[in-house]
Amino acid sequence: MAPTERRLKQGDWVLVTGANGYIGSHVADVLLEEGYNVRGTVRAEKPWLNKLFDGKYGKGRFETVPVPVLDAPGAYDEAIKGVAGVLHVATHINWSGDANDVIPHVVEGSVNILKAAAKEPSVKSVVHTSSSTAAGVPVPNKKEVIDENSWNDAAVQAAWAQSAPEHERPYVVYAASKTEGERESWKWYKENKPHFVFNSVLPNYNTGPILASEIPGSTGAWALNLLKGDDMAVKMFPARKASSQIPVVRDVS
Questions:
Q1: Fewer CB in 10 Å around end: N or C, the chain?
Q2: Any alpha helices (H) in 65-168, and if so which ranges?
Q3: Domain ranges for the chain
């Protein structure tokens, strides 16, 4: 395939999971701008989201489908019908420090979307949204080579052992969930060899505009929250993360 050739054509429908989230809403926005139609999954109906994109791109190009439980068997079977591409952005995140509350749900939800895509002949491409923390975390004064074989096993081990300081455990569990979610997705894809192309992206701390006031904003809201006196993110993340790259959310999308 030539570098400029696209697997999906304009007018195709693309499924974006978690379309009401910070990154998911930007992904949907970019796809619509590029001429694709978007079906977004949400936990519950979000009329404001439909209004946002209907007003910007016209009715008939964006629709939502409720998927209340990401790791329920067959959760995406209806939502995925007829789409040509899938961008899996949604994840189970509650900032719990208990690995049992997060990791199994993320893994099952990640594999769920692949199973659904394998049953839908129209799907040509699936992209899994992982995190840079799935590959590793920068350590001061330590040089490392990160490639497609790099996994943050230290986070996985620490998450299950609960060995990190209590205030850092939510971040460690998050990193472990992203590690295991992506790893198990690749494992399933290689073992089952479905008809579609699969890939993953590993964004870092995202910043930039929040498309609607109803969107909490994830990392994009942390600076504003800090100004309001909410220092949760500062306390939760290890100090070494300050050396990481900070991409703009639209570039990631």
A1: N
A2: 103-118, 153-161
A3: 13-252
CA distance 83 to 79: 9
At 251, give phi and psi (nearest 5°). -65, -40
Q: Tokens standing for 37?
A: 């139609």
pTM: 0.86
Measured over the CA atoms of residue 24, residue 228, residue 102 and residue 99, the dihedral's sign is positive
The CA angle 45-211-34, to the nearest 5 degrees, is 90
Q: Are 229 and 160 in contact (CB under 8 A)?
A: no
> Kind and range of the H or E element at 26?
helix 22-33
Q: Alpha carbon of 74 to those of 13, 35, 222: distances in Å?
A: 20, 29, 34
In CATH, what number does 13-252 get?
3.40.50.720
What number is the average pLDDT over the span 186-201?
Answer: 97
Confidence of residue 246 (pLDDT cuts 50, 70, 90): low
Strand order in the sheet with 62-66: 62-66, 37-42, 13-17, 85-88, 125-129, 197-201
Report yes or no: 223 and 152 within 8 Å, Cβ to Cβ.
Answer: no
